[in-house]
Amino acid sequence: MTEPAATPESAPPPPPRRRWNWKLILATVLVVPVLLFAIYTAVALNWAYSEGDRSGIMYKLSHKGWVCKTWEGELNLTPGAAAPTIWTFTVRDEAIAKQLNEAMGKPVALHYTEHVGIPTRCFGDTRYFVDGFRVVSP
Question: What is the pTM of this model?
Fold first, then answer.
């Protein structure tokens, strides 16, 4: 006996080919790093490593930067000393920067928070962010 020849209809169909969804892969490759960077930056800016007060005579406050303008200042911690100790800081609030400009040359006590690991200098040149101050009587 001879077996009947196999017909194309009786053969199982080939498995479907998996096609890569290039748009999904490209979106994932681009979006995931940006999202991780944004989350890391938000955590670094909102979590304070330390906070405290520093007092001295503020003698410099400038609005600097090419693209990201920030308020950068310097405080003389040892006024009248032969070798002054300078502390640099950043102010993110425009209202506080304006008030500090008016208190230039007066003894002040600055309240700051220290943020470690900020990824770019777009948020400030230093890791010390002043968020309040008071004028101290001499």
Answer: 0.74
